[in-house]
Design a protein that fits this description.
The complex is a heterodimer. Chain A has one domain. Chain A is 68% helix and 3% strand. The termini of chain B are far apart.
Chain lengths: 374, 659
């Protein structure tokens, strides 16, 4: 029945080339192009540091992604736990010796790049859970041991990241992990009951928040209260998007961004800049590219024979969606401002690296979608 | 292995797919939400956010308005705007501010004081705001800077506009000066408030202040795109402001210059007026100052020099200086006495040099006395004794009426100068009101020779002379030239008409006449006399004073009919002359400057067909005949020589108006 899908079966190079997912690669290239132009615009129409650096990173990590896609899926399966522990160690290292920027100790100085392990954890946690649930019988999923272990796996990095402090990434890591746990078939009642516990515990958690984080949440509910202080980002971002209108102000003509009213325009607020210059049409276009990308990832998951790549693709695709949704809701004033980059678009090496590694694994899943991992 | 996992695997596959389906559905809903939000922001509320973004990025800068010019009677600019060279530095654009300042300091020879002022200012403003290093570069400095410009990175020589008074001290009191608007200026004057920009120069005194509304013009507006920090990024629009109105005044610069020259090194004032049109041909007060000094803010030392000068250069003596008129009041006293039928022209008094009245001795200026005097001789020789007697008979209240009719005791140029003073024409009632005491007869006597409480401005005396010289008609003095002016002949005709009308009016009942006065409040060119002969007599006696032997200003006469003028000297005592001093009979030069008499002279000419009136006052100059009257001689020559030019100009303007 599965003649060519034997455990030891190797694909030839041409077979790999033939089965690589061109649509997904095409989407990634489009996003890389758009993001470079957006970066170029954020620097007022000049090829300066951010644009050059972003483009270079994109190229390097794109090559890395292609390289990863030719690696046998089994390899990723085998190193999943290892990767998770490495990243966990890095997180631990960062919390001890990391570089502190604007009050948050997130980065490890690797001399050629400042690595943000919390970004890598977003992908590592999915790999880890994918492996964890890969061979698990559906009946065992809800056993006590199999409930408690994932929670520990999830809590450890969350704890390290929130102590940096980095609320945004913590939430994203948590959501990424929870998505895989959800997909694995954990009983819905656990989700419901945890949700109820969370809601009850929220006031307790809020008391642990840093003052600036509390302010952000308060500001979200009433940005006009402090228009020049905490509410400034939300207000200016909304003005930028709103003033873009149907077709936008035109490339390099976004006044909000080039007159520097927009905060952090090359990182978290890159969508605002894009939306101001290309308007509703451009924004919908961008969403469409992202949707196709996510669709492809999930499609690859759906054709995968093995549960590891299926869970990973579903989980990763959903995580990408969550990053996009959180980032956009945030800049459109639908969610409080928490640091969360827009995948591929935002400036930031670690985020790009994590996304590209994830996509590399997805591409590998496509090539080896018939394979079964024991 | 495959087989063993088959059943569980399928179940697991189904669960994963089902849960993925739920997730996908959630994703579609959430993306739908984001798209809805985008739609609401970018399509529904686009206008609102576009406005907000424009509010963010657009700023308007108002430019100082360009001030209107002042022109003299012949259209020459006497206060204008000149282009000046300024040196600007934007600290942000300078690589090394210290080095640049070091170089500039050397080139411009900045003093330590100026240097520290600039540094102070630099520290108080934002780095992208323009720092003015020098307000007014000389051409030398400007070319020097341009020569070294390649080394002076960041320094910008800029062309700007500033007020300029080409005739310097000739017009300082008439025009006043402009200087930076103070908080008070802004709060008091609505139009300054509306047009104010930092560094705006506004009128501080003189006509510059009174005509601020017309002169100021409107702001230009520059629209800039600014960034989030308020820095200008790009100029979008430049709307030019409207220049203020030009104002032509009635003064003739040539005569004005002559006045300045005549008053050089003296303290005093000269006024010249057209006796029909009321135009002020020239007025100068001395000492004067250069109004250009005030434009960039006057230096401390210069300011001290001006304010501490005992001769008070800032005071416009013509309008705000109050003097006892001395004997120049005598023509009015004589007229008043004749008009009130107190005496006739043959009334005689013997002058022995002094008279005793009520136990007090009143001296005539001539110790030996003038002998037997009639009215004409008393005016001609300025006999004090005679006028003591006339004043005694006339009484101060009747004198006051005539003096006020002829322009004393009220402002001459009502609204043109805020600094103008009213002066005092005393009366019994006035003394009671102001001093709470009863009038004593002795005070009437000294009022009769223009001493005591009576206080007049030189311009009032000029108006008084003019209204006598034109045959006794009320005129409207003015310093700002009207567009359509009546010429002298038209005015004379009007005067005649009014005289006839007045005679006719006498037959009407009193009520109607008073109503007429109320209806026509400014009853210009109406007669101020009851009997024309009285005016003619007074003028004739003034002719005698200047052109006949024994007249007080005989030595200053001109015999040529064309220039001949008539006038009355005056010598106003500053200090009561003690008996000892009277005995010593000191010469003017032997008396301390502050105690010397003021010298006055009023005159009109040419006598045959009078046209101009003059009043001269030289503070502490000694006697009117020796210090004031001689100036009139050259002055009348100049005025009358320039008469035809003036008439031509008037006719030209009137004909242009009528076209």
């Amino acid at each position: 029945m599965f003649k060519e899908t034997s455990y030891t079966n190797r694909l030839t190079f041409f077979q790999k080339i033939k089965s690589i997912d061109l649509i997904l690669i095409f989407c990634v290239l489009i996003l890389g192009g758009i993001s470079t132009f957006a970066m170029y615009s954020s620097e007022g129409g000049q090829m300066l540091y951010y644009t050059k650096s972003h483009l270079l990173r994109f190229c390097v990590f794109f090559v890395l992604m292609i390289f990863l896609s030719f690696i046998r899926l089994k390899f990723f399966h085998s190193i999943s736990y290892f990767l998770y522990f490495i990243v966990l160690l890095l997180l631990f290292y960062a919390s001890l010796y990391g570089i502190t920027v604007s009050g948050s100790q997130r980065w490890i100085n690797l001399y050629f790049i400042n690595l943000q392990p919390s970004e890598l954890m977003k992908i590592a946690i999915i790999l880890c859970f994918a492996k964890f649930y890969h061979r698990m019988q559906i009946d065992n999923v809800n056993s006590f041991r199999n409930l408690i272990v994932p929670i520990i796996i999830l809590i450890m990095p969350m704890f390290l990241v929130i102590s940096q402090p980095d609320l945004g990434t913590t939430i994203l890591i948590a959501l990424s992990g929870i998505v895989v746990i959800w997909l694995s078939g954990v009983n819905i009642k656990y989700f419901i009951s945890s949700f109820i516990v969370l809601v009850i515990a929220t006031p307790f958690f809020i008391s642990f928040l840093k003052p600036y984080q509390k302010l952000r949440i308060l500001t979200f509910f009433d940005p006009e209260k402090d228009p020049l202080g905490a509410g400034y980002q939300i207000i200016q971002s909304k003005i930028a998007v709103g003033s873009g209108g149907f077709s936008g102000k035109g490339f390099l003509k976004g006044t909000q961004s080039y007159l520097e009213f927009l905060p952090e325009k090359h990182t978290d607020f890159i969508f605002t800049l894009f939306s101001e210059e290309f308007g509703f049409v451009g924004s919908i276009g961008l969403l469409l590219v992202y949707s196709i990308l996510i669709y492809r990832i999930i499609y690859i998951g759906s054709i995968s024979r093995n549960f590891f790549s299926k869970l990973f693709c579903y989980g990763f695709g959903s995580s990408i969606f969550i990053y996009i949704a959180v980032n956009m809701s945030m800049v459109l004033g639908l969610l409080p401002i928490v640091g969360s980059p827009l995948p591929i678009m935002s400036y930031g090496g670690s985020s790009m690296l994590a996304t590209m590694v994830g996509l590399g694994v997805v591409l590998s899943s496509k090539i080896y979608h018939r394979q079964i991992i024991a | 292995m495959i087989n063993s996992g088959d059943g569980g695997s399928t179940k697991k596959r189904n669960i994963v797919s089902r849960r993925m389906f739920i997730l996908t559905a959630a994703k579609v809903i959430i993306f739908g939400g984001i798209i809805t939000r985008l739609f609401s922001l970018q399509i529904n509320n686009n206008k609102k956010y576009l406005n907000l973004s424009d509010e963010n990025r657009l700023r308007e800068w108002r430019l100082p308005p360009v001030r209107g010019d002042f022109k003299d009677y012949f259209g020459k600019t006497i206060a204008g705007n000149v282009e000046i060279f300024q040196l600007h530095v934007v600290p942000e654009e300078v690589t090394n501010f210290k080095v640049l300042m070091f170089r500039l300091r050397k080139i411009l020879n900045l003093s330590d004081n100026e240097y520290s002022k600039i540094i102070k200012k630099k520290n108080s403003q934002k780095p992208w705001e323009t720092l003015i290093i020098s307000n007014n570069l000389s051409w030398d400095e400007f070319s020097k800077i341009n020569l070294y410009l390649h080394e002076l990175n960041g320094a910008k020589p800029v062309l700007s506009i500033a007020r300029n008074y080409p005739f310097k001290d000739n017009y300082s009191h008439v025009l006043g000066y402009v200087s930076q608007a103070s908080v008070e200026d802004i709060n008091r004057n609505e139009i300054i408030k509306n047009n104010h920009v930092p560094g705006l120069k506004v009128g501080k005194t003189g006509l510059e202040k009174t005509y601020e509304k017309k002169l100021i013009g409107t702001n230009g507006v520059q629209r800039y795109e600014v960034n989030a920090f308020g820095k200008r990024v790009k100029e979008l629009d430049h709307e030019k402001g409207k220049k203020g109105e030009n104002i032509r005044i009635t003064i003739d610069t040539e005569i004005q210059k002559f006045l300045t020259k005549s008053l050089k090194d003296k303290s005093g004032s000269i006024s010249v007026m057209d006796i029909f049109t009321g135009e002020i041909i020239a007025i100068q007060s001395s000492p004067t100052f250069d109004p250009n000094m005030f434009i960039y803010g006057i230096g401390n030392e210069e300011w001290k020099k001006i304010t501490q000068n005992p001769l008070k250069p800032l005071l416009n003596k013509t309008l705000s200086g109050l003097y006892s008129p001395g004997s120049t009041i005598k023509p009015i006293v004589a007229l008043s006495a004749l008009e009130n039928n107190v005496i006739n022209k043959d009334f005689k008094v013997r002058c022995t040099g002094k008279i005793e009245l009520f136990g007090q001795t009143y001296h005539c200026w001539k110790d030996k006395g003038h002998g037997l005097m009639d009215l004409r001789n008393a005016v001609k020789q300025s006999c004090d004794t005679y006028f003591y007697e006339v004043a005694r008979l006339l009484g101060v209240d009747r004198l006051k009426k005539t003096a006020e009719d002829f322009g004393l005791g009220k402002k001459v140029l009502e609204n043109s100068f805020l600094e103008e003073k009213k002066g005092i024409v005393p009366s019994t009632e006035w003394k009671k009101d102001v001093m709470g005491k009863n009038w004593v007869l002795g005070e009437t006597l000294i009022t009769g020779i223009g001493q005591g409480y009576i206080q007049t401005t030189p311009l009032q005396l000029c108006l008084m002379t003019a209204q006598l010289a034109n045959g006794g008609y009320k005129i409207k003095p003015k310093i700002v030239a009207d567009k359509n002016q009546m010429n002298a002949n038209q005015i004379k005709f009007k005067m005649k008409q009014n005289l006839i009308k007045n005679k006719f009016d006498k037959t009407q009942n009193l009520l109607e006449r008073t109503q007429g006065i109320f209806q026509n409040k400014e009853n210009f060119f109406t007669p101020l006399f009851k009997d024309k002969k009285n005016i003619e007599f007074v003028l004739d006696s003034m002719y005698g004073a200047t052109n006949e032997i024994m007249g007080t200003s005989y030595s200053s006469r001109i015999e040529d009919d064309f220039y001949q003028f008539a006038g009355k000297t005056g010598t106003a005592q500053v200090k009561r002359i003690t008996e000892e001093a009277r005995e010593l009979d000191l010469k003017t030069s032997e008396i301390p400057y502050k105690d010397r008499d003021h010298a006055l002279y009023i005159a009109f000419g040419p006598y045959k067909d009078p046209r101009y009136a003059v009043s001269i006052i030289i503070e502490h100059g000694g006697s009117g005949s020796s210090a004031a009257a001689p100036i009139a001689k050259d002055l009348f020559k100049l005025i009358i020589d320039r008469h035809q030019l003036r008439e031509n100009k008037r006719n030209k303007i009137n004909s242009e108006e009528n076209v």
